[in-house]
Amino acid sequence: xxxxxxxxxxxxxxxxxxxxxxxxxxxxxxxxxxxxxxxxxxxxxxxxxxxxxxxxxxxxxxxxxxxxxxxxxxxxxxxxxxxxxxxxxxxxxxxxxxxxxxxxxxxxxxxxxxxxxxxxxxxxxxxxxxxxxxxxxxxxxxxxxxxxxxxxxxxxxxxxxxxxxxxxxxx
Length: 171
Description:
The chain is mainly beta. The chain is built from one helix and eleven strands.
């Protein structure tokens, strides 16, 4: 094997084995698995978009998703869809969302999601939008929102979790 290729593969393997930890180093590593990272396309001139993903906490300590940021949006807030007196709306979740040890958090349409506010450009199918998730223990974790047009689902067949094909392990 080419020595340069061998050394590159070795370096990539070692970097992938490093645990995530908070920027200040004060907290323990928080092994997270982040998958199904996607968003819908937006129309030209749309000011907002929504981000969806799944986070699994494989660690022994609880983790908290505090929010996110991206160069593509003025700000990103955690939101939850709520219904009050038959009217569906959204409310910000300022305190973040806890992910228990061994548990998972799913950000999905009609539930908790990332609200991208003041988009700087439309979200176009096929592009990847850089995003930084902010965690209480793990600190900043970079991911990319895949801009996808979701396929219509048959009512009797739920979409398998692996169908999205966007698995990113962070540990």
